[in-house]
Design brief:
about 300 residues; 2 domains; 10 helices; about 40% helix
Amino acid sequence: MQPGKKVGGYQLLSRIASGGQAEVFHAKATSMALFGKPRHSEFVILKRLLPAFRRDARHVERFRKEGELMLRLKHPCIVHTLGCFGQESDPILVQEWVDGQPLEKLHERCRRRNQFLPLEVVVFVLRQLLLALCYIHELSEEGIWHGLIHADVSPANLLLSKEGEVKLIDFGVARLLGEKMFRENELHGTLAYMSPEAMLGHPIDEKADLYAVGILLWELMANRRLFEGNSEVERMHKVKNAQVPSVACHNPSLPHFSELILRKALAVHPERRFESARAFIEALDALARRMGLRQDLGLITRLLEGFHKT
């Protein structure tokens, strides 16, 4: 697929990303309806497996399952999947277009400039992320609880829109609680945001997602990466050992209460972490109250406006 080409009622505008297992395109719908329903926007995202993975039936099946799963998820903090089309061996997902930036890009720019993201923005963004996790962790249909784990919470998978929204994306390695999707000793997710138990190959639950949020909180507060290394082996060693320095060493202006939140979020043993996404939200709300932090959609809008001006 190349920009300018028409595919299944869409005109490809640009390739946004190509890496991991899939390529992602910004596209324009050429029909007034999408999957039999009036379209809300003419712009969409098309996501397709890269050629090497389209030749592997296991990856194709997993990609189809991702599409089926995301069609069921309806939450304002999760990117909306509109449908799926294409051949059996070459499915293409259609998702809403989010006009904004991934958190990863914004934070990289801040680190290069040695400029901290405002704490009110950090708390707001992660609170929205936790709302999305709360929804999937407590997912139920027709009275049956499913409990879904994202398993790849990272700054690259969190979009901030110009309208002030926060959207969790990429459910490619998500699984139901207790579901075994991958072969033994296979690691799936973003290495720097894995929990110690995931790195050790142990079964994971929703606490692994909350641990990743803890890493994000530490990194945004400290304005640096937590588990850095000169090689993948070194990074794996750091993730496995889970040695977390005090955030106050890098940002002494933070209150001691933020250190307490981080200690709980980043506990090595899952049973010592926050009990749920809701409990993590309550801790962030307490921090916001103590510091008088403003919390509204305008925070993200103003941040992105400043990002584009400089």
